[in-house]
Design goal:
Elements (H helix, E strand, L loop, with lengths): L3 H16 L3 H4 L29 H13 L3 H10 L2 H5 L1 E5 L4 E4 L7 E2 H7 L11 H20 L5 E2 L19 E3 L7 E3 L4 H18 L7 H16 L16 E3 L10 H4 L25 E2 H21 L3 H22 E2 L2 E2 L2 E2 L5 E2 L12 H4 L7 H10 L7 E3 L4 E3 L11 H9 L4 H12 L11 E2 L7 E2 L4 H17 L1 H4 L11
Antiparallel strand pairs: 1-2, 3-4, 4-6, 5-7, 8-11, 9-10, 11-12, 13-14, 15-16
Helix pairs in contact: 3-4, 4-17, 6-8, 6-17, 7-8, 7-9, 8-11, 11-12, 15-16, 15-17
The structure holds 2-acetamido-2-deoxy-beta-D-glucopyranose (3 copies).
GO molecular function: catalytic activity
Pfam family, one: Glyco_hydro_125
Keywords: Signal
Length: 501
């Protein structure tokens, strides 16, 4: 039976749910009053009583940045985007259970990749806000439980403790997956190497900013063990020496399912051994053309090194740390050896000489290699690849009168993503390029003051996903990076602003 205090809480929660608008529709039309710049961007935060998590440290950053930013439209876009994950996506949080369920925005599921990015720009605030710190730790713990059971899957249902019902994913109907899944736990089981990297990034960023190793519990250790198992399985060629098929994961739609049939009985295109690790789908959740996705391997190489540092600093599992360092080097060597020709990185390769030169907007992408920490933005191979990717040499680059950038087959080649411009800003020190890309993002929110998934080059009021928390977080993270790295471009006083100070 519920005690009286619990009953009151439950009643308060249902009142909130009843009077708070659904943010999917809320974010489709201008809400609060307009900013004072030429764009007049609306205030788009939900009413205070409808916000899903409140952080004094986050509010302080918003107040600081509003006072400092030169451009009032940029200040408004920052004010809307920086808190978006906390304002709208914390569907469940229980500190005692150490569990939190974070949705992506318009889809009620927790993606391993999205959460790592949704929280990336809050990590430096954790020492200042114990509740926020507890929230991030709870996100890590929830994901450790998922990965322990389903290391090949990337998107999940609410934890049973939350009392929230699982939602049905139509795209999963009729899909044959091996190993099989339980759809009460898994929302979608596309194997995307970078999902596992996202979990590692979320964990190590928490540690780097707090020195708190208490997230390392039995579930977390089991999850990491599973990640090493996946790395081992997905490093194998399609056939062994006797042409036995080495298949540890397969996925195929077809037969009337919304999802497409995949060649080779769901195993996709064959691959040779390279030292890199395969993926099945891309960070966009689209099927990969070739198995070795360069940016995901670059990210894995970086995250394995960080993982080793965490183990060494926390003085646990030093043997695993050595293994992680060795794997990191093997993967990075293979990226340089197998994907780069004449200073140009291929997006995907198959180990037989097959290369696909392109980029896809989702991070990890080739444009985001410096953001990921894989190389310096001045590295000649990055400079040459970036130039090619922001030109007609990249099949998924397009440019209209108002908007340009890199898209992907997830939407189509003429609907580039603001996210690709954010990655490009991280990839240059050129003030003019930065300003041009920043203005391009700012001028193309369809007057809604939020970052969308894609924007149409023929009609910049046509966009996808009104509520996409990761894109909002990534934008705010980039603005904070500029506030520290290039303050003269955006801040009134031209002095570096850092969250840690
Ligand atoms: C509109 O702007 C005023 C003054 O800038 C502010 O006090 C008020 O809260 C704003 N209202 C909304 C709904 O954003
Ligand atoms: C974490 O520990 C390092 C020393 O190992 C120290 O320099 C740093 O300030 C600590 N950070 C926090 C947030 O306590
Ligand atoms: C963005 O819009 C502003 C104001 O309308 C305009 O002055 C500027 O040239 C635009 N920038 C770009 C890169 O389109």
């Amino acid at each position: 039976m519920l005690g009286p205090a619990v009953a009151v809480l439950a009643a308060a929660a249902s009142v909130r749910a009843a009077s708070c608008p659904d943010y999917s529709s809320f974010s489709m039309s201008p809400q609060g009053n307009a900013s004072l710049g030429p764009l007049g961007l609306p205030f788009m935060r939900p009413a205070e009583e409808c916000r899903t998590f409140k952080s004094p440290a986050v509010e302080q950053v918003i107040a600081d940045m509003k006072a400092k930013l030169k451009n009032p439209d940029l200040a408004r876009l920052f004010e809307n985007t920086f808190p978006n994950t906390l304002d709208t996506t914390v569907k469940y949080f229980n500190k005692e259970q150490n569990l939190a369920f974070i949705i992506t925005g318009d889809i009620t599921a927790q993606w391993l990749r999205d959460t790592a990015n949704q929280f990336a720009h809050y990590q430096a605030l954790l020492p200042k806000d114990p509740e926020l710190k507890a929230l991030v730790k709870a996100v890590i713990n929830n994901e450790a439980r998922y990965i322990k059971q389903y290391p090949y899957c990337g998107a999940f249902q609410p934890p049973p403790e939350s009392g929230l019902s699982p939602t049905h994913n139509d795209w999963n109907d009729g899909v044959t997956i091996n190993p099989p899944i339980n759809t009460n736990i898994v929302f979608e089981c596309k194997y995307e190497l970078d999902s596992l990297c996202g979990f590692l990034k979320l964990s190590r960023a928490y540690f780097q900013n707090t020195n708190d190793s208490s997230f390392i519990n039995d579930d977390w250790n089991a999850a990491v063990k599973q990640i090493f198992k996946v790395i081992e399985e997905q490093s194998q060629p399609t056939f062994d020496e006797d042409f036995n098929l080495l298949s540890y994961y397969s996925w195929s739609g077809g037969n009337g399912a919304l999802s497409p049939m995949v060649n080779n009985h769901g195993n996709n295109e064959p691959n040779a051994y390279t030292g890199m690790v395969k993926t099945h789908h891309r960070p966009s959740d689209d099927l990969a053309t070739f198995a070795f996705l360069t940016p995901a391997n670059a990210m894995l190489s970086v995250e394995l090194k960080h993982l080793a540092d965490v183990f060494n600093k926390a003085k646990v599992q030093e043997d695993v740390a050595d293994n992680a360092r060795a794997l990191s080097k093997r993967i990075s060597d293979a990226v340089w050896k197998h994907t780069v020709v004449d200073n140009i990185f291929a997006y995907e390769t198959n180990g037989f000489g097959g290369r696909y030169v392109m980029d896809d907007a989702n991070v990890p992408s080739l444009l985001s290699l410096p953001y990921l920490g894989f190389l310096d933005k001045k590295h000649p191979a990055y400079v040459a690849t970036r130039k090619l990717l922001l030109s007609r040499g990249n099949p998924y680059y397009s440019r209209g009168k108002q908007f340009f950038g890199v898209g992907g087959p997830h939407v189509d080649a003429w609907d580039p993503w603001p996210m690709s411009l954010i990655s490009s800003i991280y990839g240059t020190d050129n003030d003019k390029e930065i300003t041009d890309m920043l203005e391009t993002i700012l001028n193309n929110t369809a007057g809604l003051g939020l970052i969308h998934e894609s924007v149409n080059i023929y009609n910049n009021h046509q966009y996808t996903r009104s509520w996409f928390a990761w894109a909002n977080s990534y934008f705010a993270e980039m603005v904070l990076d500029l506030a520290e790295r290039k303050p003269h471009l955006i801040l009134k006083d031209s002095k570096p602003y850092r969250l840690q100070d």
